[in-house]
Design brief:
Strand order of the largest sheet: 3-2-1-4-5-7-6
CATH class: Alpha Beta
Shape: globular
Largest sheet: 7 strands, mixed
CATH topology: Rossmann fold
Strand content: 15-25%
Radius of gyration: 17 Å
CATH architecture: 3-Layer(aba) Sandwich
Amino acid sequence: MTVIAMPKSHRDRGIEGLAARWYASNTGEMLNEYTALARRVAAQLPQGSHVLEVAPGPGYFCIELAKLGSYSITGLDISHSFVRMATKKAAEAGVMVDFKQGSAFNLPFPQGSFDFLLCRAAFKNFAQPVAALQEMHRVLRPGGRALIADLNRDATPAAVSHAVEVMGLSAVNRLMTRLAFKWRLLKSAYTRPQLEHMLAQVPFSQAGIAEDGIGFEITLTK
């Protein structure tokens, strides 16, 4: 039997204060990506669906999705800064999104609460990733779907450099983002075998992992 080496355990990696404001500014320069993702999800999601984003950060995806239909949308983030920020941005956009503070491995929702769940660029930050997957499974309704998008630990430096170049960032944010990938993000990310090992411990009826640029898209069905 193949033994899968997993990264060392760590605390939840939340972002607060100045770091949260920089992250919001940096990702705000890529708003077109959130808009495109929201349109893609909305095209497959019936009106009235209940949607949860785990770790929404500044709330860009939730807000863009709320503009597209009559969805019940909730965002849950461990960062108090992001919850305040996202709540303010939703109000400024004139949309209804319920942003809450909480942990991915202890979701404060009843079983079977949501039709669709998104977790984008945050799964690698969870202190208890398998517990987080189990919680995602619990809060989805039977037949509910989840999409987890995150970085591939084996992404090459050339691929990462190209990805940063096409993000449309300012010169300063391009430099900061390259440094973040090199010194923190890639070291925190998972390989495909590690993801497969974790997914095998959760009873989703369907689970698929597809490469997407420098990352993975994990599609799950309860």
